[in-house]
UniProtKB/TrEMBL annotation:
PTM note: Autoproteolytically processed. The inactive tetrameric zymogen termed p46 autoprocesses to a smaller form termed p41, which is active only during spore germination.
Reactions catalysed according to its record: Endopeptidase action with P4 Glu or Asp, P1 preferably Glu > Asp, P1' hydrophobic and P2' Ala
An annotated GO BP: spore germination
EC top class named in words: hydrolase
Keyword Protease: yes
Listed EC numbers: 3.4.24.78
Coiled-coil positions: none
Protein name: Germination protease
Any GO molecular function: metalloendopeptidase activity
Role, per record: Initiates the rapid degradation of small, acid-soluble proteins during spore germination.
Source organism of the structure: Desulfitobacterium metallireducens DSM 15288
SUPFAM superfamilies: HybD-like
One Pfam family hit: Peptidase_A25
Gene: gpr
Length: 328
C-alpha cells in the first residue's frame, strides 16, 4: 500500500509540510506542480523551504498557499548549550526573513497546548521563557526606545480546560491588544520517528490546534484574526499507525528481495495489509499516539531554543546580558 493511500485510508494527519512533500514527490518521482522546494545546509541543521505557489499546489499538498520552512536539527537531542544557541540563531534568521518586522511592530506570542500533558506543553513552556515587554513600554518608554519591541504573550490552555475555543480567546485578545503579528507555537505530529523533537517548522499560514492528533479546532490564521500569523511547531508525537505501516513496509521489502520468499510477497495485497494494520491497532486504529520516554527533556530543550530565537528576532537591540535583566 502506498504511504499516501495508507494516510488517506487511516485518516492519519501529517503536520509537517516537508514530510507531505517527501511522500508525494517520492511516489510520483517528479516535481509537484505549483510547489517549489529549496535546501540549505549548516553545521548543525538542514533547512528545507517549501513554497506552495498555486491552487494546484494547494490541492496536491493539502494545505494553504504559503511558505513552510523546516529546520532539521538532530543535535537538539544533545545537551549542548553552544549547539542549541546556533540552532536558535538559525531559527531567528528565518523568522526575521519571513516576518520582515519594523522597529515599531507589535507582536502577540501564543503558546498553544496543554501544560498538564508533557508532549503538548511546548507552547506554554516557550511562553515561560519568553521576554514580554508590552507593560514595560508603559513604565519606562524612553529607556526601551530602539532596544525592545512591544511583545505580549499568553498560554490560553485548551478547550478541555477552559471550555472556550482557543481561537475565540486569541481573537478577543487581538481585538484589544491590536498586534501587528501573532506568533503561534504548538506541538505537532510527525510522520516519522526521527523527527520527534528534532525538527522545527515555521510557516506564514497559521495553524489549526489539535490537527495532528485528529482533534482539529478553529484555525488561527490571518483570516480568523485579522492580522498576520506565523506558526512555529515541533513534532512531539507520531501516530502508531505510521510505525506499524513502516514495519510492514520493511517486511515486504525483505520478502520482495528474497528469491525464496517472493511468492509470499506476491500473496499480499492492500486489503490484506489494511486488515492486518486494523487488527494490530484495534481498538484505537488511528487514535494511538506515541512519544519517547525522554520527551520532557526534548520539550525543555526545544522550548529554550525557540524562546531564544524569539528573543533574537524580536529584540535585536539588546545583548544576551540585557535580555536576562528584562526577563521576568
Amino acid at each position: 500500500m502506498k504511504k499516501s493511500d495508507f494516510i488517506r485510508e487511516f485518516n492519519v494527519n501529517i503536520d509537517m509540510a516537508v514530510e507531505a512533500h517527501e511522500i508525494l514527490r517520492g511516489e510520483s518521482e517528479d516535481e509537484i506542480p505549483g510547489v517549489r522546494m529549496s535546501k540549505a545546509e549548516f553545521d548543525h541543521a538542514v533547512i528545507t523551504t517549501i513554497d506552495i505557489e498555486t491552487e494546484q499546489g494547494v490541492q496536491e499538498m493539502g494545505r494553504p498557499q504559503g511558505t513552510y520552512i523546516t529546520i532539521d536539527a538532530p543535535d537538539i537531542r544533545q545537551n549542548n548549550y553552544l549547539v542549541h544557541n546556533e540552532i536558535s540563531e538559525i531559527l531567528a534568521k528565518e523568522l526575521v526573513n519571513l516576518m520582515n518586522l519594523n522597529d515599531n511592530s507589535s507582536v502577540l506570542i501564543v503558546g498553544l497546548g496543554n501544560w498538564n500533558a508533557t508532549p503538548d506543553a511546548l507552547g506554554p513552556q516557550v511562553i515561560d521563557k519568553t521576554l514580554v515587554t508590552r507593560h514595560l513600554f508603559q513604565l519606562s518608554p524612553d529607556e526601551l526606545k530602539g532596544k525592545l519591541r512591544n511583545v505580549s504573550a499568553i498560554a490560553p490552555g485548551v478547550l478541555g480546560i477552559t471550555g472556550i475555543e482557543t481561537a475565540e480567546i486569541i481573537r478577543g485578545l487581538v481585538e484589544h491588544v491590536k498586534p501587528d503579528w501573532v506568533i503561534a507555537i504548538d506541538a505537532l505530529a510527525a510522520g516519522s520517528l526521527e523527527r520527534i523533537g528534532t525538527s522545527i517548522q515555521i510557516c506564514d499560514t497559521g495553524i489549526s490546534p489539535g490537527s495532528g492528533v485528529g482533534n482539529r479546532r478553529v484555525g488561527i490564521n490571518e483570516e480568523t484574526l485579522g492580522c498576520k500569523v506565523v506558526a512555529i511547531g515541533l513534532p512531539t508525537v507520531v501516530n502508531a499507525a505510521i510505525i506499524a505501516h513502516s514495519c510492514l513496509d520493511g517486511l515486504l521489502d525483505e520478502l520482495k528481495t528474497s528469491p525464496s520468499l517472493y511468492k509470499l510477497y506476491k500473496g499480499f495485497n492492500s486489503d490484506t495489509l489494511e486488515h492486518i494494520l486494523t487488527q494490530a491497532l484495534s481498538p484505537y486504529t488511528n487514535n494511538l499516539m506515541v512519544t519517547p520516554k525522554e520527551i520532557d527533556t526534548l520539550i525543555k530543550s526545544a522550548a529554550r531554543i525557540i524562546a531564544g530565537a524569539l528573543g533574537m528576532c524580536l529584540h535585536p537591540g539588546i545583548t544576551r546580558e540585557e535580555y536576562q535583566t528584562y526577563l521576568q
